[in-house]
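User: I'm preparing a small set of examples for a lab meeting where we compare how different chains pack in three dimensions. I only have the primary sequence for this one, and I'd like the structure in token form so I can line it up with the others. Please keep the answer compact; I'll paste it straight into my notes.
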Amino acid sequence: MKTHLWLGGSSVALTVALLSVPAAALAQAAPAPATPDSDTVEEVVVTGIRASLRSAQDVKRTSLQVVDSISAQDIGTFPDKNLSESLQRVTGVQISRQDGEGRGVSIRGADPSLNRVEINGSSALSLTVGGTDRAVDFRDIPVEFVSRLEVVKSPTADMTEGGIGGTVRVITRRPFDSRKPFIAGSAQGVYSNLAKEYDPKLALIGSKLFLNDTLGVLLSGTWEKRHLNSNIARTTGWLTRGATAVPGRGSDVNGDGTLDWIPDIPRLMVDRRETERKAFSGVVEWRPTDNFKMYLDGTYATATEDVNATYLQLSGTSGLIDYANSKVGVDNTVSHIELTSSTAFPIDLTYRNILGDLTRTQYATVFGGEWKGEKVTLDARVDYSNAKVQNNEINATATVFGVPRAIVDYTSGGAPKFSFPGLDTNTGQGVNRLDAVFNPRTNKADELGAQFNVLYRPDISWLTSLKAGVNGRKFSTDQVLYQRTTRLSCPGSAASTGTAVVNVNTSCATISGIIDSTSVDNSSGFFRTGDLGYSGGVQSWNDNTMATYNATLAAAGLTNDVRGVNPNPLTAQTSGGAGSFQAFLDTWSVKEKTNSAYAQANFEFADFIVPVTGTLGVRVIDTKTTSTGFNKVQTSSTVVNFVPASQDGGYTKTLPSLNLRFEFIPEVLIGRATASKVMARAAPSQLALRRSVNDTNLTISLGNPDLKPFEATSYDAGLEWYINKDSFLSATYFRKEISSFVTTAVTKETLNNAEYTVTQPINGTDAVTINGLELGGQYAFSFLPAPFNGLGVLANFSYQKDDGYKGQNLITKEILPFPGLSRKSYNASVYYENDKVSLRASYNWRDHWLINAVGRDNLPEFNKAFGSLDASASYNINDNFTVFLEGVNLTDEVRVEYNAPARQSAVETYGSRVFLGVRAKF
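Assistant: Understood. Below is the structure token output for the 922-residue chain.
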């Protein structure tokens, strides 16, 4: 989607002009660049773990804000293999994972979508399929590009708004970081013990200064392939069902008069993603004098996933309960359930494969400049960011309607253990429906922005600077979704449903024959890593392939052309026109136009008993939103129109901020106090004019264009003791008063004779307060005699508690914790380093947290406490070559979700990853 800056081309021209004026002046008056002479001091670059920690400590100590950072150990060398996994080492930061890789970042309990992420000051945009959040995906941004990561927890007025928890700054390496030209690279192999695959990764980075060291160019690139696997044993939901006229349908399993909890859609999942990633970063910087620079940055990353996920899935609403052979355990929850089929209530078992591919592409660019005068500094920049996700989802799904008996056992733990007496799950036996599904979805987002800032240094002893600026951004995002299913049915299968389904009747022999000839046996194993809690049961089933998908289409004599004509006339955009496979109710766009201005003052009272420095400022933002989509207008059973619609919204917010830094003992004992107003915008899909219907889960999701942003007032009070250049201790109390947030309203709606759960986002106005304490520190034992002087430790601990959140467990009526908040979390690392050897082991742990207040069957969904152990070792062969060995999740920890202690909903394993490689630098 094309975008134009809100002021048109004139604003870009203005920015270019502002950049050009200082350059023209400098061309006339600038002194000649200095030339090297015999007195020039040779640059000394300190590298390694201790140098990285020292650099991060310096950033923390000198900043006016509450900030934590992680610095690269050397060119192209970062402490972890993934940016998100590095950030989890920061106090108050927790991460979310996908297939074992760190993906999103939570700060001080704020969900990943409520934090802002910048790459060299430009907005990093979300790559979430469906636009369901603004969370930035860190998996595709190479650590080799990064010089430093910063987590800013207290904003200043000159910072772009958008983070309730904080702002993550990704700062890549720049050509003037080193005056000496260099080229560095690495080659490594990655082994996953779950996928049992070896994968390559290559990285290269180089930098050089030209024109008497006034023009710098830095280029870097990476390429990798990865097999990302995870295995999940899931019970999607738990439900109770009142007695009916049909015996076996009610869920009072033990007959004690109390309804018992029975599983809803228990299933086993093997997720396999063969991923190829490519990334490129380039920086050109011109510094003709010491007081002027211009720069052009660009960071590009793309990843393509070939998806092959296989599911063994049992419908939770089918079949009759065999009470005599079923058992009830703790908390009225079945520990063993047996189901039988009847004509009216057949058990349906599904062998489902999600195939196809998914491509993520993102880039962030900036053109800017800065001129420093004796009293005035001017800087201006134009930014452009873009993100696109193309999800070409393909399903090959085979269903057995009328399974004679299904047994689901939970006595060995919380994971479902399946048995199907008389049914061979590795053949086409009993399969009487085949679906070939193609659901291509495109999500795109871009942001164009420009800003201009002026800093003035007055001749006032206590007023060190005044700064003001303006910023304008235009953000747009859209989604287009098509859905088409070609279905083969034979006698015994259920009736076809859904407007995107084209049904073709055939023989059961044809369907079972397709399975027998095209499906494979996933005999590679299920849950080879981690502890599932049991052995035996069904762990192998029909693993459908693209050949299954293609054979289904061939037998039907059709193609899944999503832009073809849908034979269902009710799918036409305009009644009477040609039917369409476009999901109009899930096709939408959201545009935001934001203008902002700020003013701030930096001050220093050096003569106070306790010297104080700080910054005080205010930022005012004005956002206009436009949401477009379709409304379904049905005037009769045969007349349906999808009418384009648009709705405007907007808001104006004032965001003051204060940061104070106290030097109780100069450079040794530092105190901090901050107060600020912060905000974060709602997810695009929440703002969209949309209505998404899921006929499998019986859910309807609606958007709300009237949503206002999350708002909070944030406070910090901290004390930091800097023991020496490598060691410190810190304690910070923080408080967030969230006055406006987005929550979910739940209602019921009957559609096609079925009851659907309808969810829609609304603004909650109940005040929520989060109080927390962060403790951190690092210590280098450099005073010990060799070789023990290379030892060091670092650790942090966070405690946070919410109050006032009114989210309620709809079953127990208990008040839930604030989503995403772990009450306790900690990190601990020990390292050893000398001139040749570097060793490090790190353990990260977080307490349980609420994933979703209203999940399947209206139950809350929690993630159990989780911890993992990582380690690394490297050996410097000489000044140019280093070999390294690193391991992630070395103890094969599993991730567990639950609704209640007795009702586990998921057990996931993704195994460990081991990296072996070599780095070179010249």
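A couple of notes for your slides: The two ends are 43 Å apart (CA to CA). The helical segments are 9-29, 49-62, 83-87, 508-518, 546-556, 684-687.

User: Perfect, thanks.
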